[in-house]
Amino acid sequence: MEHGAESLSCLSYFAMRYALCPYAMMSFQMDPNQKVVYSIIEKRVKGTRKKGEGPYSLIASLDLRAREVISLVGAGGKTTLMFRLARELLLAGKKVVTTTTTKIMEPSSEETPCLFVHSDEEKLKQLALQHIDQFRHVTLAAERIESIKLKGISPGLVGLLCNSPEIDMVIIEADGAAGRPVKAPREWEPVIPPSSTLVIGILGVDGAGKELNEENLFQAGRISELTSTPMGEKMTCEGMAILVVHPQGIFKGTPHSSRRVAFINKVDVPEGMIWGREIGKEILKKGFPQIERVILGQLKSELPVAEVVFRK
Predict the structure, then answer these.
(1) Which of 35, 116, 133, 159 could form a disulfide with 195 if both were Cys (CB 3.0 to 4.6 A apart)?
(2) Do the domain assignments include residue 123?
(3) What is the tally of structural domains in the chain?
(4) CB contact burial 39-57 (16+ within 10 A = b; e otherwise)
(5) Looking at the domain assignment, is residue 159 inside a domain?
(6) d(CA 201, CA 263)
(7) What is the pLDDT of residues 232-282, one digit of tens each?
(8) pTM of the predicted model as reported, rounded to 2 decimal places
(9) Residue 309 and residue 293 in contact, taking contact as beta carbons nearer than 8 Å
(10) What is the DSSP string of 230-252?
(11) Taking the CB of residue 141, how many other CB atoms lie within 10 A of it?
(12) Can you spell out the DSSP letters for 70-119?
């Protein structure tokens, strides 16, 4: 076991900070051309929040259900979303496992109170089940690689974990993007467990308007092929939307039974809300029925969600 006593004090700090933090009311200019724009503030005003949820919460925005297995794909904030969502769930009284089926940076004790690294998956499962009641949130990995990274677990182990009554939620980072804001998946990506009930496809809004090359976007050649955007041209909102709805785009390999949510992150950057709303409008305009909503997010801000856009 790693991140022991130090993590317990850290957990108490975050519980006080985020449970007691007052949320400010905010308003947004609604785009009349969008099909439906629904602010989380509206949910608060109507009194339809679930008990324990704050305004702008990820739990409410994603409409999380009991015993979810949540896979995160795409680029531009997967790791941040995983640990921020885990913290919300922890404060809501849930017992959570976070992990990856690819690779992640080793988390800090602020991100997870307990980390287990073991190559034997049966042992890893036992460690999780033995300590989930104590820590309420544990992170699992198979081994350390490249000194600061962790190699993930198999989709099969995810299936075993989600069938364990001791665990309420499993969150998996199921894709890699080398720190870029936008990506197209390679042949073997993403690695989405078949047991996933919800798949969240993430785009960094800061990828819009960027020149299409490998320095700016991950797998730029593949992005060019899927979106018909010439290399060296600027990435458009329509191109970003195509990456979401294309069969070979960021949701590639999603189980048919899984719900899908598009999450456009970093809308707190300059003009980010303008870009985010436009991308969301393009996604929904393409009529892809599996995507039930588009979330405009700002995961490094105090309020992680700005708006939720629904299909009619």
Answers:
(1) 159
(2) no
(3) 1
(4) bbbebbeeeebeeebbbbb
(5) no
(6) 6
(7) 999 999 999 999 999 999 999 999 999 999 999 999 999 999 999 999 999
(8) 0.84
(9) yes
(10) PTTSBPPHHHHHHHHHSTTSTTT
(11) 24
(12) EEEEESSSHHHHHHHHHHHHHHTT--EEEEESSEEEPPPTTT-S-EEE-S
Q: Is 271 left (phi over 0), alpha (psi -120 to 50) or beta?
A: left
Where are the alpha helices (H) located in the chain, listed in sequence order? 5-20, 40-46, 58-62, 78-91, 121-135, 155-162, 220-227, 237-245, 272-285
> Which domain does 70 fall in, by range?
33-98+168-310
Q: Which CATH number fits the domain that encloses residue 94?
A: 3.40.50
Q: Which amino acid makes up residue 264?
A: I
Taken as a whole, the chain contains a residue count of 312
Query: Are the CB atoms for 193 and 172 separated by under 8 Å?
Result: yes
Quick check: is 5 in a domain?
Answer: no
Tell me if 226 sits within 8 A of 242, measured CB to CB. Answer: yes
